[in-house]
Amino acid sequence: VDQDGVLADWGKTWDKTLALYGASYAIPRHANQRSFDLKTGLNSDDKAMVNRVMETPGFYADLEPIPGAVKALKEMLADGHDIAIVTSPYYSNPTCIADKIEWVRRNLGQSWVSRIILAADKTRVSGDVLIDDKPAITGARIPDWEHVLFDQPYNHEVVGKRRMYNWNHSEWWLAINPLRVPAGSKAFA
Ligand SMILES: [Mg+2]
After folding, report:
1. Which residues make beta-bridge pairs with 146?
2. What whole-number distance in Å separates Cα of residue 168 and Cα of residue 140?
3. Are strands 85-87 and 8-9 parallel, antiparallel or unpaired?
4. What is the pLDDT of residues 93-111, one digit of tens each?
5. What amino acid positions are annotated as catalytic residues?
6. I need a labelling partner for 24 at 20 to 30 A (CA). Which of 75, 95, 144, 170 fits?
7. Distance between CA 99 and CA 93 in Å, rounded?
8. pLDDT tens for residues 139-189?
9. Distance CA 20, CA 18 (A)
10. How far apart are CA 88 and CA 36, in angstroms?
11. In this structure, are residues 36 and 11 in contact, taking their beta carbons and an 8 Å threshold?
12. What spacing in Å lies between the alpha carbon of 86 and ligand 1's midpoint?
């Protein structure tokens, strides 16, 4: 399970920090973000503002949990699934890694900290399902997981992937227990 935009409400803090810095409205606010790349179409001043926001110390520690995410993760674990929090740190932010760990400790508890995998390249991490909001996840390897998209404004155009809209029980349960059609099943022949 990815952290930003899936467990942690990155967009809310993005909007708040842009407001705090009086950023130009040429920089899309979360609800209007159509590109995962935050700098798409921006001039150099606005690109510098994006860097300033993203490099704000403490930015990643203060994110609110996405509603239902914490409860869902604990239920998944209780159901017997082996859960990892797989996150790509924003290395230009001096406190990002410590903040991400602190976020997990604060919101999920100390026992979850050892479930964190920091990975700039998530294709190197093995698993059955990766729940992530990034539209396309590529890297050095062909992943063994299925990418289930966590719905966000910047991934609406992606087709052909299963999608989770929230952390309701039925949503996450189906995401990690997909319907398997038995081979040779007459119903689907
Ligand atoms: Mg994410």
Report:
1. 129
2. 33
3. unpaired
4. 999 999 999 999 999 999 9
5. 2, 4
6. 95
7. 10
8. 999 999 999 999 999 999 999 999 999 999 999 999 998 765 555 555 443
9. 5
10. 14
11. no
12. 9
